[in-house]
Amino acid sequence: MNMSKIRPADTGRTFRVVGLPGDGIGPEVYQSACRVLGVMEQLYGLTVELDEQLIGGAAVDAAGAPLPAETIEACKNADAALLGAVGGPKWDGNPAEMRPELGLLKIRAEFNLFCNLRPIVTHPALHSFSPLRPDRLENVDLMIVRELTGGSYFGKKWRDHDQAEDVCRYTREEVERVTRSAGRIAQQRDGRITLVDKANVLETSRLWRSVVGQVIAEEFPDVALENMYVDAAAMHLLTRPADFDVMLTENLFGDILSDEASMLCGSLGLLPSASLNENRFGLYEPVHGSAPDIAGQGKANPYAMLLSVAMMLRYSLDCADEAAALEKCIHACWNEGILTRDLRVDGCSTSEVTDAVCGQLAALSP
Ligand code: IPM
Ligand code: MG
Questions:
Q1: Which residue of the set 51, 141, 166, 259 is catalytic?
Q2: Which of 157, 244, 265, 302 has the highest count of CB atoms within 10 angstroms of its CB?
Q3: Other Cβ atoms within 10 Å of 69 Cβ, number
Q4: Nearest atom within ligand 1 for CA of residue 255
């Protein structure tokens, strides 16, 4: 971003975003986001000040920690953070506190990013890339609301030679706050929540059922709530995905179901996410990982990252119109078959997709 250019007089349109390129294909898709944001600045009179910081393996190498204090400080002064990806085989043998993934878990915990949104929306131009039958993909538009700062990811952990334990713990308050987020989202959609749990076996799931039931009944009487066991949900996601509206679930179930659901859209490379706290700050990142096998080759699919930029514009920067315009341009590219190699053998490169999206933006220009 050109920080020296003359800013528009309306300072309400100036935003600070921490850029976290990370590892593997992270820097490539991040670069794509920077270019698209640059074009949007010009076209829509926004100023996005990108402050690039370290996270993940890159941070372990350069600063000796997966989430350096400087990165945390930068995020404290920002409206949002935009993350590429973390992880790679280079750091697989590292001790737990020096693993790239810890950078991600720490930033989620540090900023209380308890509400993870993963929209699953199919598009007719991509139906043929899904392993599912096209008739099952019609009208799929579901929002996974994954609790992101509790459960077995953050419970007490230990291991000795013969045993290991990851404690799955949830408090009433943790369940209440994410339920309220899901309730508000459902009210803006079709007004239906499916709570996914394993209440036939797990005590934490029984707490979830009771708390979610109470919050929805008392505070969201216009929202319909259904309960579903996670094993059944995994199946119904494949047999009747169009029936879901909002799927609310705990951390680990949400991790697994969102990767499964990505196949409805055709590729994991198409799925964006937003991780939000109770203020407006959010961390935006593609759901896909660092894909070290294709890193540095210009093959990465940037759409998940660009859709994450759209979510950032909508949820943290209050630029809903710009978000919609970017999504429209991305869909136009899909209609023209501008796809990367995860979808087509003769597919485009990362920068060709980025060029095409920028071109669509310019053509749509207000
Ligand atoms: C995700 C990822 C992370 C998670 C990993 C990288 C720690 O799989 O965001 O879904 O499990 O939450
Ligand atoms: Mg995951």
A1: 259
A2: 302
A3: 9
A4: 10
Q: pTM for this one?
A: 0.94
Checking if the pLDDT of 177 tops 80, the result is yes
What pLDDT was estimated at residue 303?
A: 98
Atom of ligand 1 nearest to the CA of 285: 9
Classify domain 13-116+267-366 by CATH number.
3.40.718.10
How many CB atoms within 10 Å of residue 165?
11
Domain with CATH 3.40.718.10 in the chain: 13-116+267-366, 131-265
Name 262's Cβ contacts closer than 8 Å, sequence gap at least 6.
Answer: 120, 268, 270, 271, 287
- Cα separation of 16 and 80, whole Å? 7
Classify domain 131-265 by CATH architecture. Answer: 3-Layer(aba) Sandwich (3.40)
Is 318 known to be catalytic? no
Percent of the chain's residues with pLDDT above 70: 97
As a whole number of angstroms, the distance between CA 283 and CA 83 comes to: 7
Summarize pLDDT for 225-245 with one digit per residue, the tens. 999 999 999 999 999 999 999
Measured CA to CA, the distance from residue 241 to residue 120 in angstroms comes to 10
Q: From atom 9 of ligand 1, which residue's Cα is the shortest distance away?
A: 287
Give the residue among 243, 236, 241, 246 at the shortest CA–CA distance from 216: 246
**Residue with the nearest Cα to atom 4 of ligand 1?**
255
Structure-token pair, residue 151:
């459960």
**Extended strands (E) in 23-61:** 47-52
- Which of 153, 170, 284, 315 does the annotation list as catalytic? 153
Q: Is 101 in the pocket of ligand 1 (CB under 6 A)?
A: yes
pLDDT tens digit string along 326-339? Answer: 999 999 999 999 99
Pocket of ligand 1, candidates 55, 101, 106, 144: which has the most ligand atoms within 8 Å of its Cβ, to mutate? 101
Mean pLDDT of all residues belonging to the chain: 95
- The residue type found at 337 is G
Sign of CA dihedral 104, 105, 111, 112: positive
